[in-house]
Amino acid sequence: MFNKRNKIADEALSAADCSRYARHVMMPEMGVEGQLRLRRGRVLVIGAGGLGSPVLLYLAAAGVGHITVVDGDRVDVSNLQRQVIHSTADICRPKAVSAAESMLAINPGVEVKTVEEFVDAATLGPLVDEADFVIDATDNFDSKFMINDVCVAKGRPYSHGGIFRFKGQAMTYLPGHACYRCLFPEPPLPFNVPAGPMGVLPGVIGAIQATEAIKYLTGLGELLVDRLLTYDALAMEFNTFTIRRAEGCCACSR
């Protein structure tokens, strides 16, 4: 683990900050106060692969002040078709470290903490405690259910994202609302996954997850709470479905 820290002053934006974030600051809905809220924000991103790539790049570019990147994997050449935060020169390097360097290259004014390991429920808990918002950018069901259960138990909001071949989905959990297990009570049985996903697909879903984090930190707009957004790249179609909190949910009804 390493912690790349740059001193972050919360009191005001410097002239350089105002230039960097000018397109945010000029929007009345965001303004200086919204940008300062992003600077104070702490986001935990679990996964620095397909979904994590756009999430991490956009959060750093937006000026989210404190970002923790969790990933125990290393960059493989087959990742580069979709994991755009990494380059050919990063092959065999830890994904968390490669991602952090790309984020700091975009914005050296943010703090990036890396955790170069695959976390379990016990090790994830303290990381969730430190975050204002959590993003599930993982690629397997076991991790997704674990992240949901830990965030629900800790009362911490998070964004779920999932991709499969040409389709993707996203939802946001807030305490007291429907969680991932309300929609999918248990992980599916193991099965062979066909080739995929389409390389650009995680860019779409990851950008949505980054948007949810920015909206949560700034208090802007309506989050994907009690809703599941789906995307079909082949049909170029988005749909949104209402999710109801399950009375017998083993995660959020306790």
Walk me through the structure.
The protein is built from 9 helices and 9 strands. The protein is of the alpha/beta class. A 9-stranded mixed sheet has the order 1-4-3-2-5-6-7-8-9, sandwiched between helices. Helix 4 packs parallel to helix 5, helix 4 runs parallel beside helix 9 and helix 6 packs across helix 7. It is globular. The N terminus is likely disordered.
Mean pLDDT: 94
In whole angstroms, the N-to-C terminal distance is 34 Å
Helical amount: 25-40%
How many β strands by DSSP? 9
Residue share in β-strands = 15-25%
Low-confidence stretches: 1-9
Largest sheet: 9 strands, mixed
Order of helices and strands: EHHHEHEHEHEHEEHHEE
How many H/I helical runs? 9
Query: Order of strands side by side in the largest beta sheet?
Result: 1-4-3-2-5-6-7-8-9
Computed structural class: alpha/beta
Q: What's the multimeric state?
A: single chain
**What Rg do the Cα atoms give?**
18 Å
Shape field: globular
In short:
With 254 residues, the chain is an alpha/beta fold.
Q: How are the elements arranged and paired?
A:
Elements: E1 2-4, H1 15-20, H2 22-25, H3 31-40, E2 42-46, H4 52-62, E3 66-70, H5 95-106, E4 111-115, H6 121-130, E5 133-136, H7 141-154, E6 158-164, E7 167-173, H8 180-183, H9 201-218, E8 227-232, E9 237-242
Parallel strand pairs: 2-3, 2-5, 3-4, 5-6
Antiparallel strand pairs: 1-4, 6-7, 7-8, 8-9
